[in-house]
Amino acid sequence: MKEYLGEKYKVAAVQASSVLYDREKSLEKAISLIEEAASNDAQLAVLPESYIPGYPYHIWMGAPWGYHELFKEWFNNSVEVPSRTTDALCEAARKNNIFVTIGISERDGNTCYNTILYINNKGQIFGKHRKLMPTHVERVHWGQGDGSYLNVYDTELGKMSGLVCWEHTMDLVRHSLIAQRAQIHCGVWVGFSSMPGWENLFDMSTELASRYHAHVGECFVVTSQSTISKENVEKLAQTDYQKEWIKPGGGWSAIIAPGGSILAGPLKGEEGILYADIDMQMIADMAHWHDATGHYSRPDVASLLLNKDPYQVARSINNFDSLGKSFDQNAINQPSPEQLLKKIQQLEEKYSELLTSDLNNPTRLLSPTPR
Prior knowledge:
alpha/beta, hydrolase activity, Nitrilases_CHs, C-N_Hydrolase_sf, six-stranded mixed β-sheet, hydrolase
């Protein structure tokens, strides 16, 4: 954990378009952006949501049968972890001595996940986060993450966390990261302001969520959004109707200080890289006023219940203890087999007592009054 000693280092928020849906070309561009950030002395580069192989914009532009071929292209170019793609990202981080946080579409079997990948400056993957709840029609393409990926990682740069896009509107999820004492938070987003009608609303929600998290969490927030290029629009807009629903541009990226003030940006509507210095003393400044999970909290009145068990499709019945665990990823605090057996025994004893009482008092057997 980084101490509050006034040490400073530079971070980079990357705002750029992918090459839809081309894994190799998007990877090549990502490496170039990582190299550029490192050449400007950044020790951390944050790249947008699903940067490799690109965000599946087509899900918002028509019925599923109409984009089946685009789905296959996107699916086939999604990233397995580990793979040659992740090896190349790790080598770029190692070679340039830089931490990298990047959004990918992770393919695991026949399901994809909206994933953040964390790589340290030694070229090692030290964590990943799968988006807990795909937003709206994203559920057609991405599966759900689980609580086992809701972590804060202790690194040389400080305690690091991350969320994907509108996960930032899930207040209990954000609070779970704040409770784990994150110091630098990586927010990866799609640049949805490229969709007509969403220009102001999406930029506003991004700014509100990012700055509020920095304020309440007393942490730095590096917000990285994607843009969409003219070439990508031409790829996606195959009908006159679709051409009305997407345009080049988009993006709202910024680097935000504890408390919510903006250190760099916002960068809007174009590609670029923002830079700012991280000074841990700024966290200490905010600690004077409040601590949402410490001296300015009341866990005896309101507290958070967090389930970090990994979701499992199949469980072995050879381990009797596993029977007491939930088969439903949304269920928590299921009773153990021993507790169930004890409850059954208690009910049997109660029934036996009632039956004995009724047999000893025949008039009760004839009574219409419910007991």
